[in-house]
Amino acid sequence: MECREDKTKARKTDQRMLPNSQRRFMRRIVSDFFHQDEVSTVINGKSGEIRKKGQIFRKRALTNNMANLHRRFQTENPRHKLSMSQFCKLKPFWIIQRRVTDRETCACKTHENFGLKIKKLHQLGIIATSSPRQIVQASVCCDNDMSCMYRTCSNCKNKKFPTTQNPSLKENIIVWEEWVTKSVPKKGTVVPTEEKEVRKAFLEKRHTSIEKLVELTQDHLSNFSRHIFNIKHQYERLRTLRESLTQNEVVVHVDYSENYACKYSKEIKETHFGGGNQQVTLHTGVIYLSGGKVKSFASLSDCLQHNAIATWAHLDPVLRSIREEHPNARDIHFISDGPTSQYQNKTNFYLASTVPFMRGFNCVTWNFTEASHGKGAPDGVGGALKNLADRIVSYGTSIPDANTLFEQLNLNSSVRLFKITEEDVKTSAELVPPDLKTVPGTMRIHQLTSTKAGLIYTREVSCFCDFACGCFSPKEFDFRDNVEPEKENTESVLEAGKWVLVQYDGELFPGTITQIVDGQYEVDTMSSAGPNKFFIPSIRYEGEKVWYYFDDIKAIIPEPQPATSSARHFCVLPEIWAKYTKKHV
Predict the structure, then answer these.
(1) Which residue among 8, 277, 358, 558 sits deepest, i.e. has the most Cβ atoms within 10 Å of its Cβ?
(2) Banded pLDDT at 426 (limits 50, 70, 90)
(3) Is 554 in contact with 502 (CB distance < 8 Å)?
(4) Could you tell me the pTM of the whole model?
């Protein structure tokens, strides 16, 4: 009895600590905390919905356990003292602990590989923590400073994380795991004797000495610190943009959803197992307006192209709709993830700097989230629409094609829908010149800005203080001078084993072609030690070679010659180097 009375008193005391007004205030603070993308992630697909009292909520899965998140909450909100029990009670019900079925299937390769190395070093007692973030913090002056995280700070650019090695374990061979991408043969489904090369990712075991693993981790630290800075910076700037929109601005967040497989309410065996069902492209998005207004939309098409040309066929009716319904909106900001086939390429850059001006907008920005960290509201729109379509089929209505899907969703959903045809995609293709120049450093660009058709400014991270600001060193690129220099090599003479000069992030590298698959070239490049000075890395893993498109291969070259008597460094023939350096300055 005494124990029960003590618990009752404790419960009443806890409730007295949080009266209704304070409880509502703390509930909002805690809810905002749990909705941070670094604290919880959206669960996409049909299983990501939860209903309560007639409302549909999108589930979010926690990225850590509640104890660690409570400590983080206390660190970020030192003024608000909140017990662990109250912290758990105030958590929104749609934010759940991660289950096996909710496991991350789109994990970031950069995070995973660096984390696996750190985990192994921690197990060996070489470092004091297993947290990659703490390792980065121990290696820089300030993890919120771009120069420190990009390893250009004069004070910490050569700083390394602290290690304690046992001399008795020197040269011991250890094993750790790492994700690698390989090209593997795949037999044809129609003709089993035919094989083609496909790229697949595998979690493989690696073997090396402890010293080499420490060295490899230190070498990868600069890329990882840049990666996590970009993640945090983009999240914060894009969130601030959405929260501070003026009446003249609009934000459009877009993404392709996984194609919807059409279904009949009742199917014969040949249809169900024969793969005869049509597929429909879903390009989903969310429009953010001033005053906290939010609208969701989606465009449907039986054209299964997901490239930049198709993207602007899907976006064109959205732009027209915005101009009609919100004529004051003159500045438009796009947000998307960065797949090179869809958004982060020269064709999309060109169309983003031309089409909005044709529709009456004055200024345009296109902002990319960091690679593998682009999940957002459009994914939830796609999951909700596909879930609704499946429910319609389960009620007895067949959805055999894109037209029927469009009609049924229009009748049953509040999401604004647009229908895109093959002709719309062809019309979009006519807007693109035949020979567009490649924008230097395409893969590092996180923001494109344009105030004049065909002229863009690119940055490595986003900034919204002013369209003409000089923050983060914007680089100018003019598409109006859009003739690509004539290349002396043709696809017909490129073959495995040949030495070529390739362009990566605006820089030139020599390398050998190792594989050719579906018009793409795997090139084993040398590492740069300065202008026209290259070396062969001492640590080279299978699967780390980069794939290039034909446009990235600038020339076929002779094998590089030793640049020093020790033959540690090599160089491309000076006349070839000078010729192509001038072309790509």
Answers:
(1) 277
(2) very high
(3) yes
(4) 0.69
